[in-house]
Amino acid sequence: MMDTRVGIFAGEDPFVIARRWLAEAEGREISDPNAMALATVDPDGMPDVRVVLLKEIEPAGFVFYTNLESAKARQLDSGGNAAFVIHWKTLRRQIRVRGPVERVGDAMADAYFRSRPRESRVGAWASPQSRPIASRGALEAEVARLDAELGADPPRPPFWGGFRIRPLEMEFWADGAHRLHDRYKWSRPALDADFDVIRLGP
Per the record's keyword annotation, is Flavoprotein included, yes or no (predicted)? Predict the structure, then answer.
């Protein structure tokens, strides 16, 4: 029997569905509706996961930003693939994504960095992300030093930028009564191929 996607699952473009779900979450989640758990693998094959903020859903990818010398960035650059999940408790929905990763261009990273509050830009310069620091006081002292040095419009540090995940797989999940959840998986064999859509068991 043909399974017709309706309601919150309606549509032929999974990126459009993802943007629609995120827009709904932005009106209901208490904080950080764009928070996603990003999974990577280190060179020894050990998995790693942390929460980052999704900043844009493009027509063909999901974009976030970070310190390019951080553990996550090193793992993204060396592994070339990543996965993430966004779970919205208020909506009782989640999206899972897997696929290759690429860095965004300098112009795009510059534009986003300029949109951040000045304090966050100074903090990006000051933080040796994922690496040991002597103390909270030492970090705050570095922030104070750079605050005086960088001026009114701090530029993007050369070690800070963005990544784009281009999905080979996207799964949309919605909570169902008696744990009979609704799940649809969009998958394609290559980035230039069309997605196939199947319903998955709960």
Answer: yes
Mean pLDDT of the chain: 95
The reply to whether 173 falls in a domain is: yes
- Residue 87, both tokens: 């779970």
Query: Is 184 labeled as ligand-binding?
Result: no
C-beta of residue 74 within 8 angstroms of C-beta of residue 174: no
How far apart are the C-alpha atoms of 52 and 75, rounded to whole Å? 15
CA 6, distance to chain mean position in Å, is 27
Per residue in 155-165, pLDDT tens? 999 999 999 99
To the query of whether residue 179 is one of the catalytic residues in this protein, the response is yes
Pairing verdict, β 196-200 and 160-165: unpaired
Domain that holds residue 67: 7-110+161-200
Answer yes or no: is 127 a known binding residue.
no
The model's pLDDT over 137-187, given as tens digits with 9 standing for 90+, comes to 999 999 999 999 999 999 999 999 999 999 999 999 999 988 999 999 999
Q: What is the pTM of this model?
A: 0.93
150 is in an annotated binding site: no
Task: Show the beta-strand stretches assigned E in 46-191.
Answer: 47-53, 56-57, 62-67, 81-88, 93-103, 160-165, 169-174, 182-187
The total of other beta-carbon atoms located within 10 Å of residue 38's CB is 26
What's the total number of domains in the chain?
Answer: 1
Residue from 92, 179, 188, 199 carrying the catalytic annotation? 179
